[in-house]
Amino acid sequence: MTDKIDLAKAYRPSEEVVVREIEGETVIVPLTSGVGDLEDELLTLNETGRAVWARLDGSRPLAEIIRDLEAAYDAPDGVIREDVIGLLQELCDRRMIVAGE
Amino acid sequence: MTARSYVRKVRSGQDGLWRTSAPALARLDIELTERCNNACLHCSVALPAADPGAKAREWPAARWRALLDEAAALGCLVVRLTGGEPTLRQDFEEIYVHARRLGLRVMLFTNATLVTPSLARLLADVPPLEAVEVSIYGLTAGTADAVTGRPGSFEAARRGLSLLGEQGVRFAVKGAVLPPTRGEMDAFEAWAAGLPGRTGEVSWATLLDLHSRRDAARSAVIAGLRPEAGEFVRLARRRGEAAVEEWRDFCGRAGGPGGDRLFDCLPAASSAAVDAYGRLQYCLGLRHPATVYDLDAGSLREAVTEFLPRLRERRAADPAYLERCGRCFLKGLCLQCPAKSWAEHGTLDTPVEYFCDVAHAQAAAAGLLEPGEKAWTVRDGGRRAGRRKGT
Prior knowledge:
The structure holds two protein chains of two kinds.
Chain A: E1 11-13, E2 17-22, E3 25-30, E4 41-45, H1 47-54, H2 62-72, H3 79-93, E5 97-99
Antiparallel strand pairs in A: 1-5, 2-3, 3-4
Chain B: E1 7-11, E2 27-31, E3 35-36, E4 47-48, H1 52-57, H2 61-73, E5 78-82, H3 92-101, E6 105-110, H4 117-125, E7 132-135, H5 141-148, H6 153-166, E8 171-176, H7 185-193, E9 203-205, H8 216-225, H9 229-236, H10 242-253, E10 271-274, E11 279-281, E12 293-294, H11 300-312, H12 319-323, H13 338-345, H14 353-365, H15 381-390
Parallel strand pairs in B: 2-5, 2-10, 3-4, 5-6, 6-7, 7-8, 8-9
Antiparallel strand pairs in B: 10-11, 11-12
Helix pairs in contact in B: 2-3, 9-14, 10-15
């Protein structure tokens, strides 16, 4: 398990993955060993996942991205925040994103 | 809503990845070279490793990189690098890394004899995401070197496997059923099962393809190595009746006779192959001049979206094919296809007696045919296959 997701940090895609846009799907393919457990699997993001991923530019703190998403998507209080943190924790555990410098 | 709703894991190579349309090209097979450092008895491709003509004509790495770029742009997810022996090329690692950096999964077919510590480390650090497929043709140096025609090949292959295993690179072992190896099959499987890094069961090449460039002398040698149909059935049954059950299932699922349709091979439906000189083919085995597209004079996109769909529309015209293959309910078993017809007869639609004999022997073993019955004369083939499937 990696560090817990920090709302004050900015995250970006890891250089250990290749992200591909194919037929409307965002497909994340491991490049180096030990990324995810995707020996026989592919990871794809749905529309909401893509909306999160597209904002991971390594410069904006996660809290700002969550505010941005809360403004863009209609959801009960706290749900988007909880989901985004859950998603990023999963991606971070798989070494698919890293905290920006 | 939970984080799971953002992320979807899909098994590679299975349905379900594409929610709307699938990409124009799912897999690209690349024969990086026809040259090989082995000279296996049964090989349908290999030229000598130092063949100067072949080497000079092979596409350089820059062309392969550009082609891989095109493939990725078309949505290709998997590329198969094969030969000949692909690692014979000095630029193999460059091509491999380029494919992986594009997000392509790589199926590497190799004899493992040229695996170095450096290559094994690369495959560990930047994994192909598919098991490396290693062909080993014997359990002892005596057997394997007799097949490869190269003294020392067995020891070199074992060194290669050890290097892969030490680095944790997953690999699958492939064997060939040949006169020198037939007596070793059980022991070979037991040996392979104990190899660190090995995954899956040994897959055996049994129904050998004739030479894909139609070299008559090479084809005659290969034809002499093939098991006859009854022997094939005996070999398949050596571990019980699972294979026979599978044959029944294939027949039940294959649908009705194909009529004049030639290109209905499902694995090739969204894939393409390119030979070492940049000529695109329907599959690696089909080198009929009328079915080849010169990528030096066109583009992969045009080949995949225009040339191959036109090719798939071609229909059989050979009367024997229409009378037999076109009406046969054993297409789930039979290996008849344009590539086999090309290798055997130089045509696209001539029945291949060997594969016909084998399919009939399989069907007889599965209880789908009476002794002496020809499958194309059976009017209730679908019912027979369906009934058998359900029992």
